[in-house]
Protein backbone atom coordinates (compact mmCIF):
# COMPACT_ATOMS: atom_id res chain seq x y z
CA UNK A 1 0.00 0.00 0.00
CA UNK A 2 1.49 3.40 -0.98
CA UNK A 3 1.69 6.30 1.47
CA UNK A 4 -0.92 9.04 1.06
CA UNK A 5 0.22 11.99 -1.05
CA UNK A 6 0.70 15.39 0.52
CA UNK A 7 -2.43 16.52 -1.32
CA UNK A 8 -4.49 13.68 0.16
CA UNK A 9 -3.14 14.38 3.63
CA UNK A 10 -3.98 18.10 3.35
CA UNK A 11 -7.50 17.27 2.17
CA UNK A 12 -7.87 14.86 5.08
CA UNK A 13 -6.80 17.54 7.56
CA UNK A 14 -9.28 20.22 6.46
CA UNK A 15 -12.61 20.42 8.23
CA UNK A 16 -15.78 21.68 6.56
CA UNK A 17 -17.93 23.87 8.80
CA UNK A 18 -21.35 24.41 7.20
CA UNK A 19 -23.01 27.83 7.35
CA UNK A 20 -20.05 29.70 8.85
CA UNK A 21 -19.67 32.66 9.14
CA UNK A 22 -23.05 33.00 7.43
CA UNK A 23 -25.70 30.69 5.93
CA UNK A 24 -24.66 29.15 2.62
CA UNK A 25 -20.89 29.35 3.21
CA UNK A 26 -18.98 26.11 3.80
CA UNK A 27 -15.98 27.22 5.80
CA UNK A 28 -12.69 25.43 5.20
CA UNK A 29 -11.17 25.12 8.66
CA UNK A 30 -7.37 24.73 8.67
CA UNK A 31 -6.98 24.25 12.44
CA UNK A 32 -6.69 20.42 12.28
CA UNK A 33 -3.91 20.78 9.71
CA UNK A 34 -1.80 23.22 11.72
CA UNK A 35 -2.28 21.08 14.84
CA UNK A 36 -0.37 18.31 13.04
CA UNK A 37 3.29 19.35 13.44
CA UNK A 38 4.62 17.06 10.70
CA UNK A 39 1.98 18.00 8.15
CA UNK A 40 2.27 21.71 8.96
CA UNK A 41 6.03 21.56 8.37
CA UNK A 42 5.58 19.67 5.07
CA UNK A 43 3.04 22.23 3.88
CA UNK A 44 5.43 25.08 4.68
CA UNK A 45 8.24 23.32 2.80
CA UNK A 46 5.99 22.64 -0.20
CA UNK A 47 4.98 26.31 -0.39
CA UNK A 48 8.53 27.59 0.06
CA UNK A 49 10.59 25.25 -2.11
CA UNK A 50 9.83 26.73 -5.56
CA UNK A 51 10.79 30.21 -4.34
CA UNK A 52 14.15 29.48 -2.75
CA UNK A 53 16.54 32.21 -3.88
CA UNK A 54 14.03 34.00 -6.13
CA UNK A 55 12.07 36.29 -3.77
CA UNK A 56 13.14 39.03 -1.35
CA UNK A 57 10.26 39.00 1.14
CA UNK A 58 7.03 37.19 1.99
CA UNK A 59 3.70 38.95 2.58
CA UNK A 60 0.94 37.17 4.51
CA UNK A 61 -2.71 38.16 4.66
CA UNK A 62 -4.33 38.61 8.07
CA UNK A 63 -5.12 36.46 9.83
CA UNK A 64 -4.72 32.93 8.52
CA UNK A 65 -2.18 33.98 5.90
CA UNK A 66 0.09 35.02 8.79
CA UNK A 67 0.27 31.40 10.01
CA UNK A 68 1.65 30.08 6.73
CA UNK A 69 3.32 33.23 5.45
CA UNK A 70 5.47 33.82 8.52
CA UNK A 71 6.57 30.17 8.59
CA UNK A 72 7.43 30.29 4.87
CA UNK A 73 9.44 33.49 5.41
CA UNK A 74 11.47 31.84 8.17
CA UNK A 75 11.98 28.75 6.01
CA UNK A 76 13.32 30.92 3.17
CA UNK A 77 15.41 33.10 5.51
CA UNK A 78 13.40 36.20 4.55
CA UNK A 79 11.55 39.00 6.27
CA UNK A 80 7.76 39.04 6.57
CA UNK A 81 5.32 41.78 5.58
CA UNK A 82 2.01 41.64 7.48
CA UNK A 83 -0.90 42.71 5.27
CA UNK A 84 -3.34 43.70 7.99
CA UNK A 85 -7.04 44.41 8.21
CA UNK A 86 -7.84 48.13 8.37
CA UNK A 87 -6.92 50.11 11.47
CA UNK A 88 -4.52 47.61 13.03
CA UNK A 89 -1.09 48.91 12.03
CA UNK A 90 0.44 51.60 14.23
CA UNK A 91 2.41 53.62 11.67
CA UNK A 92 1.39 55.53 8.53
CA UNK A 93 -0.37 53.10 6.18
CA UNK A 94 -1.61 52.66 2.63
CA UNK A 95 -4.66 50.49 2.06
CA UNK A 96 -7.33 49.23 -0.28
CA UNK A 97 -10.99 48.18 0.15
CA UNK A 98 -12.15 44.91 -1.39
CA UNK A 99 -14.91 42.27 -1.44
CA UNK A 100 -14.56 38.64 -0.32
CA UNK A 101 -16.83 35.55 -0.26
CA UNK A 102 -18.60 36.86 2.84
CA UNK A 103 -18.67 40.65 2.93
CA UNK A 104 -16.22 43.48 2.43
CA UNK A 105 -13.01 44.49 4.17
CA UNK A 106 -9.96 46.72 4.00
CA UNK A 107 -6.31 45.71 4.04
CA UNK A 108 -3.35 47.91 4.84
CA UNK A 109 0.44 47.83 4.99
CA UNK A 110 2.87 50.29 6.47
CA UNK A 111 3.81 52.79 3.79
CA UNK A 112 7.50 51.89 4.20
CA UNK A 113 6.95 48.10 4.26
CA UNK A 114 8.12 47.45 0.70
CA UNK A 115 11.65 48.02 -0.61
CA UNK A 116 11.35 49.52 -4.12
CA UNK A 117 11.57 46.81 -6.78
CA UNK A 118 11.68 43.97 -4.27
CA UNK A 119 10.13 40.63 -5.18
CA UNK A 120 7.38 39.85 -2.70
CA UNK A 121 5.66 36.45 -2.52
CA UNK A 122 1.99 36.68 -1.43
CA UNK A 123 0.69 33.91 0.86
CA UNK A 124 -2.80 33.04 2.08
CA UNK A 125 -4.65 29.95 3.26
CA UNK A 126 -7.81 30.06 1.13
CA UNK A 127 -8.53 31.40 -2.35
CA UNK A 128 -12.29 31.87 -2.70
CA UNK A 129 -13.46 34.81 -4.87
CA UNK A 130 -9.88 36.05 -5.07
CA UNK A 131 -10.85 39.49 -3.81
CA UNK A 132 -8.43 39.42 -0.90
CA UNK A 133 -5.41 38.11 -2.80
CA UNK A 134 -6.00 40.45 -5.75
CA UNK A 135 -6.28 43.44 -3.41
CA UNK A 136 -3.04 42.45 -1.68
CA UNK A 137 -1.14 42.13 -4.97
CA UNK A 138 -2.42 45.51 -6.16
CA UNK A 139 -1.57 47.16 -2.85
CA UNK A 140 1.97 45.75 -2.71
CA UNK A 141 2.60 46.71 -6.33
CA UNK A 142 1.31 50.23 -5.73
CA UNK A 143 4.05 50.50 -3.10
CA UNK A 144 6.81 49.43 -5.50
CA UNK A 145 6.85 45.64 -5.10
CA UNK A 146 7.07 43.06 -7.85
CA UNK A 147 4.74 40.15 -7.02
CA UNK A 148 6.09 37.06 -8.81
CA UNK A 149 3.54 34.66 -7.37
CA UNK A 150 0.73 33.84 -4.97
CA UNK A 151 0.92 30.74 -2.78
CA UNK A 152 -2.42 29.36 -1.55
CA UNK A 153 -3.15 26.29 0.55
CA UNK A 154 -6.76 25.66 -0.55
CA UNK A 155 -8.38 26.89 -3.74
CA UNK A 156 -12.19 26.78 -3.87
CA UNK A 157 -12.50 26.25 -7.61
CA UNK A 158 -16.21 27.05 -7.96
CA UNK A 159 -15.65 30.62 -6.75
CA UNK A 160 -13.18 31.27 -9.57
CA UNK A 161 -10.61 33.22 -7.60
CA UNK A 162 -8.09 32.63 -10.37
CA UNK A 163 -10.12 34.90 -12.63
CA UNK A 164 -9.51 37.79 -10.21
CA UNK A 165 -5.79 37.01 -10.42
CA UNK A 166 -5.58 36.59 -14.20
CA UNK A 167 -2.02 36.85 -15.48
CA UNK A 168 -0.52 36.03 -12.10
CA UNK A 169 1.32 32.85 -11.11
CA UNK A 170 -1.08 31.33 -8.59
CA UNK A 171 -0.16 28.00 -7.02
CA UNK A 172 -2.50 26.13 -4.70
CA UNK A 173 -1.51 22.97 -2.86
CA UNK A 174 -5.06 21.57 -3.07
CA UNK A 175 -8.20 22.39 -5.02
CA UNK A 176 -11.70 21.65 -3.69
O1 LIG B 1 -10.84 34.88 -1.97
P1 LIG B 1 -11.68 35.67 -1.01
O2 LIG B 1 -13.15 35.59 -1.33
O3 LIG B 1 -11.20 37.09 -0.89
O4 LIG B 1 -11.54 34.99 0.42
C1 LIG B 1 -10.32 34.52 0.93
C2 LIG B 1 -9.96 35.21 2.20
O5 LIG B 1 -10.96 35.00 3.21
C3 LIG B 1 -10.34 34.51 4.38
O6 LIG B 1 -9.92 35.54 5.23
P2 LIG B 1 -10.89 36.37 6.20
O7 LIG B 1 -11.09 37.73 5.60
O8 LIG B 1 -12.10 35.58 6.53
O9 LIG B 1 -9.97 36.63 7.44
P3 LIG B 1 -9.32 35.73 8.59
O10 LIG B 1 -8.10 35.09 7.99
O11 LIG B 1 -8.99 36.77 9.59
O12 LIG B 1 -10.31 34.71 9.08
C4 LIG B 1 -9.11 33.77 3.88
O13 LIG B 1 -8.15 33.60 4.89
C5 LIG B 1 -8.66 34.65 2.75
O14 LIG B 1 -7.85 35.73 3.21
N1 LIG C 1 -15.25 29.08 2.39
C1 LIG C 1 -14.21 29.63 3.03
N2 LIG C 1 -13.57 28.94 3.99
C2 LIG C 1 -12.51 29.49 4.64
N3 LIG C 1 -12.04 30.71 4.38
C3 LIG C 1 -12.66 31.40 3.42
N4 LIG C 1 -12.43 32.64 2.94
C4 LIG C 1 -13.35 32.90 1.99
N5 LIG C 1 -14.17 31.87 1.82
C5 LIG C 1 -13.76 30.91 2.71
Automatic annotation (TrEMBL):
State a single Gene Ontology molecular function: adenine phosphoribosyltransferase activity
Q: What is its EC number?
A: 2.4.2.7
Primary location = cytoplasm
Please indicate if the UniProt record lists Iron as a keyword. no
Q: Which Gene3D superfamilies match?
A: 3.40.50.2020
| Catalytic reaction equation(s) | AMP + diphosphate = 5-phospho-alpha-D-ribose 1-diphosphate + adenine
Domain (Phosphoribosyltransferase): residue spans on this chain: 39-146
- Name the coiled-coil region(s): none
Which terms does the UniProt entry file under GO BP? adenine salvage; AMP salvage; purine ribonucleoside salvage
Pathway of action = Purine metabolism; AMP biosynthesis via salvage pathway; AMP from adenine: step 1/1
Localization (cell) = Cytoplasm
State the UniProt keywords alphabetically. Answer: Cytoplasm, Glycosyltransferase, Purine salvage, Transferase
GO CC term (a single one): cytoplasm
Q: Which PANTHER family match?
A: ADENINE PHOSPHORIBOSYLTRANSFERASE (PTHR32315)
Q: Which family does it belong to?
A: Belongs to the purine/pyrimidine phosphoribosyltransferase family.
Q: How does it assemble?
A: Homodimer.
Task performed by this protein: Catalyzes a salvage reaction resulting in the formation of AMP, that is energically less costly than de novo synthesis.
Q: What is this protein called?
A: Adenine phosphoribosyltransferase
Q: Report the source organism.
A: Janibacter limosus
From the UniProt record, report the name of the gene that encodes this protein. Answer: apt
Amino acid sequence: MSAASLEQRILGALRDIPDFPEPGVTFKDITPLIADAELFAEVVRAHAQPWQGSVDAVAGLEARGFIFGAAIAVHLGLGFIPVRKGGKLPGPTVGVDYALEYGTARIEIHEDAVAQGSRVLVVDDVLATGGTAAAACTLLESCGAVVPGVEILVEIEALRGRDALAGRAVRSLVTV
